[in-house]
């Protein structure tokens, strides 16, 4: 029998989600996979910048959401947490943002600064639009689509920048680098973005009642007639993963495709189990399904 939802009393297996740690973990393992696919080495500060940025953005989104809610209306532990601990969360987030800024100033190059600034514009636009301007607009761009694209691009950004770093040839002249060095990344990056979309799409389906009570629209509410397609979407990614793994694109396709097949299959199975285990358990586990690069990085 499923236990009732009690605000402020999360199960032990919910803490990764409650503390917004699951999303940074997913970003870091996929960043490591992209770095391996591109055969580049990342420094600690490049990974630290990504992890801190993702955590701050996710916690800020939930903090803003929590500001609009109350103890009586909130329906998730991850939104209750920033309501109950509003100012400790705020100051912790501010410190994390300052640390991320210090790391960026001290370690990142001007080219990296420019690339991060370009990606920051649509990210901040998303927060402004979906939390304030178009929060409940029925025709807004689905927030899940924005999250999937921005998350995937942010995860692959540093590996791509390192791959395109200018180098000097033997004669001392700057060697020109062309975009063909990143051509092989587009398929893995696209598949990861689709995985992210499947992830947040399932969450939207499971939490339709939550979004309704929280006064927030979602892809499941905007496309209410397409819920079956959203639930089938992870299974549609399985053949795409096999195509990438077996398509003759070498280690890059094999590793990325294997991760997609495994993550999509786990996601689809979790959706099948959701009515039995409940939306809270499914929500806590759904990001874990995206951690499959750990196996690829260590065992393949």
Tell me what the structure shows.
This protein has 300 residues and is mainly alpha-helical. It has one domain (12-161, 183-299): Farnesyl Diphosphate Synthase (Orthogonal Bundle). The chain is built from 14 helices and 2 strands; from the N terminus they run H-H-H-H-H-H-H-E-E-H-H-H-H-H-H-H. The protein has helices at 15-18, 22-37, 44-68, 77-84, 86-107, 110-133, 143-163, 186-206, 208-213, 219-222, 227-246, 250-277, 279-286, 293-299; strands at residues 167-168, 174-175. A two-stranded antiparallel sheet has the order 1-2. A hairpin with a 5-residue loop joins strand 1 and strand 2 (174-175). The protein is globular, with a radius of gyration of 20 Å.
Number of domains: 1
Tell me the CATH topology: Farnesyl Diphosphate Synthase
Distance between the termini: 40 Å
Q: Helical percent range?
A: over 70%
Largest sheet: 2 strands, antiparallel
Shape: globular
Give me the Rg, rounded.
Answer: 20 Å
Provide a compact summary of the structure.
The chain is mostly helical and 300 residues long. Helices cover 71% and strands 1% of the residues. The chain has 14 helices and two strands.
Main features:
300 residues, mainly alpha, Farnesyl Diphosphate Synthase, two-stranded antiparallel sheet, 2 strands, 71% helix, 1% strand
